[in-house]
Design a protein that fits this description.
Layout (H helix, E strand, L loop, with lengths): L6 E4 L12 H11 L3 E7 L5 H11 L2 E9 L17 E6 L2 H15 L11 H6 L4 E4 L6 H24 L4 E5 L5 H16 L4 E3 L11 H11 L4 H4 L1 H4 L9 H7 L4 H13 L6
Parallel strand pairs: 1-2, 2-3, 5-6, 6-7
Antiparallel strand pairs: 3-4, 4-5
Length: about 280
């Protein structure tokens, strides 16, 4: 049984203003850290996947394909300072059929909408969920948003809906970036996963390749929210530690839940589709 950590939630600069590293930089760092596989999950697109795949092939890394789908559903009540972005659901491609479905989802989401405003609704998801594996996401995910706005009851309903859409193809995603609020959420997510008998999976919700790349990502974050760096405040705190990590680092980080780390490797083995 494979146990080596695999990063299954990484965005590149092809997530416009929500990732600061080029696909090749992610692969270069993944190779340096000894990661056997990485999934590229850019927002509403697979534009970076060909470059990601070419770099990964040269580095001997398995390049997995996915995306963060921006959902067409009400967001929680915004703060006065910084209205939240719509929630995003992470999907990974399992098969050729899944890749076709992902491309159809992305096309349908963009049809008839202004550039950069693509949205996926529940009907689209239901029609094209085949061959796709779902991760519940981190701060940006619908489960975290449901917990924040409606507590455990709303989050459970959200998770039950996802479990019905992605029957046997759903992991409850856990991330740890040294933030107290995140730990409260993780405790709730683990509880929900146990109640609904769903497997947890650890990711680092990667937005940049190396720790030293965070300042550039902070700039992108300020631009995305149309504010200044010195006024961005808590928006930048969310960016902490969202770089690629080694297997040993993730094992230490999730010492209380080693199965969540092992699940990343097990799922990467199951995902058969690459651009080869």
């Amino acid at each position: 049984m494979p146990t080596h950590y695999t990063e299954l939630h990484a965005a590149s600069a092809f997530s416009f203003l929500d990732g600061s590293s080029q696909p090749e930089e992610l692969i270069e760092q993944a190779a340096a850290l000894g990661l056997p596989a990485v999934a590229l999950t850019d927002t509403n697109g697979v534009y970076g996947a060909p470059r990601f795949y070419r770099a990964a092939r040269e580095a001997g890394i398995k390049a997995l394909v996915g995306a963060e789908l921006v959902l067409d559903e009400p967001s929680p009540a915004p703060s006065l300072a910084h209205p939240p972005n719509p929630s995003r659901l992470t999907v990974l491609v399992e098969s050729r059929a899944g890749y076709r479905n992902l491309c159809r989802l992305l096309t349908a989401a963009a049809r008839g909408r202004p550039k950069g405003q693509a949205r996926v609704d529940r009907a689209m998801l239901a029609a094209h969920a085949g061959g796709l594996h779902c991760l519940t996401g981190g701060e940006e995910g619908p489960l975290a948003r449901a917990l924040a706005s409606g507590g455990m009851a709303l989050a459970r309903r959200q998770l039950e809906r996802l479990a019905a859409l992605f029957d046997g193809r759903l992991h409850v995603e856990l991330q740890r970036h040294g933030r107290r609020q995140q730990e409260h959420r993780n405790a709730a997510l683990i509880d929900l996963a146990q109640r609904l008998r769903l497997p947890p999976l650890a990711t680092n919700g990667v937005r940049y390749a190396k720790p030293e790349d965070k300042p550039l990502y902070d700039v992108f974050t300020a631009i995305r929210h149309r504010t200044h760096l010195d006024e961005a405040g808590r928006l930048l705190a969310v960016n902490r530690q969202r770089h690629l990590r080694t297997h040993a680092e993730m094992e230490r980080l999730f010492a209380d839940n080693p199965g969540a780390v092992a699940a990343s490797a097990e799922l990467a083995e199951r995902l058969d589709f690459t651009l080869a």
